[in-house]
């Protein structure tokens, strides 16, 4: 009996021929692996739904940054071979083709790859069939869609998936929450309570594919090749957020005027556990941040190894800029689109106490370059910048701590892969302030 991948491939080939399409736009399938874990299966299946791709493409900060970076590096992309790792709907592959790439290998493990081709094959306009649509977009002889995991390319089924050449450019939108978090990619809507003064925010659970990029880099990238994005930085800072605490916790202190003696307020400890036990994905603004941020981890995509991502530990030291209740710690990231020549020579994990500017810490050389936006394109998920679908990752404290201006908040944070499920992230936060010490452990799942 014909297996499912072969059946789908045969059906697509029949549709392709029936539509009169003869240009070399191709889809390849790896053999199904019996060792694939349920978590991986769920992870990739979630990306077959168009909703998650719609939300990402609608994120103009994200999409515009990639398009601008591609055009900024057009001289390194034109007439070159590009690999798009985790191409999704293929928008970055299209941008690269439009920038003059000679060939683009668009690698996608989810079934969205099949849907892309089905859409192209069945595309109908009043004046042209799919072949003309492809030709008019100058893609029919440039884009090769590879349906499979990048780690599978050339290993599961050499007959189906073959990349017989090195590539000049690797591009990927691989970032997840806190940059490195991996999840199953579900889509849902997150509702901020009405009295919280925050709008309805659609959320897509996104995840990091950096290990796939590293694999592709080591296997296919030519020496001196280009990686976009090229560098990434994780930040954290203490935050205050009275509105959220009021709407989720203090709500239980007076429910429809019912006296607390009747036991309604007994819900408060349980409400805190439900609301704050796990990290939250929310959007806050610069006004919520109490200090200058601290740099948690700086990654050079040209040199980082997969083992470097398994566990990250750093110490921090903040000096509060204002007097306010400390409700927790916020995490976010920046990525920059630079060439391989920028290699920082100093450590990027020194302590900061607020003496540096918001977009500058420790005087590191790569920070100085970021100031000149005409030289480096930066995609930032900072609370100070325009919101993105990544938002910020917030670790709430169970009890707010009142801090004074110039009060020191210090400690350490560890981000590590969960041993039970490598797509989850364990977060251990130790913090000290005002003569008190605390530890909070959370799982981003």
Automatic annotation (TrEMBL):
GO terms for molecular function: histone methyltransferase activity; protein-arginine N-methyltransferase activity. Residues 354-364 have a biased composition (Low complexity). The keyword S-adenosyl-L-methionine applies. InterPro entries: Arg_MeTrfase, PRMT_dom, SAM-dependent_MTases_sf. The keyword Transferase applies. Residues 346-369 are annotated as: Disordered. Residues 231-339, 374-435 form the Protein arginine N-methyltransferase domain. Keywords: Methyltransferase, S-adenosyl-L-methionine, Transferase. GO terms for biological process: methylation. This is Protein arginine N-methyltransferase domain-containing protein. It comes from Zingiber officinale.
